[in-house]
Amino acid sequence: MSKREIYWLIRKTSKHLKNELRKKIEEHGITWQQFHAMYHVGDNGIPANELARHLNCNASNMTGLIDRMTENGWVYRERSKEDRRIWLIKLTENGKKLKEILLPKHQENINHIMSKLNDEELKSLGVLLLKFYKED
Question: Does an H or E element contain 41, and which?
């Protein structure tokens, strides 16, 4: 295979893995973006602008996402006590319960997908992929 073919295979594989994980998460009635947001909301909440950075989205998209998650009863907004200009996004009890279910399920899904490779293959793949992150 040529370098170009390998490059496209990596891209297609990455997209395929993400789509497989997305489908599994969406079976629980939550979108991938909502799950990703929920993942970043800790026990003390997270400022909306910081969550937007994690999700790589703009303020208007963040507002819509949080509105839908609020309608589903998973999160709520609360003003920061330290800085009233900042809105914190916090999980409701239902949101915490859903997160407690989804995080281990997501890890199981990852483990299932990666089980196609044996330990030696995983190690070799990891070594090869890390080469892309090392500086020349």
Answer: none
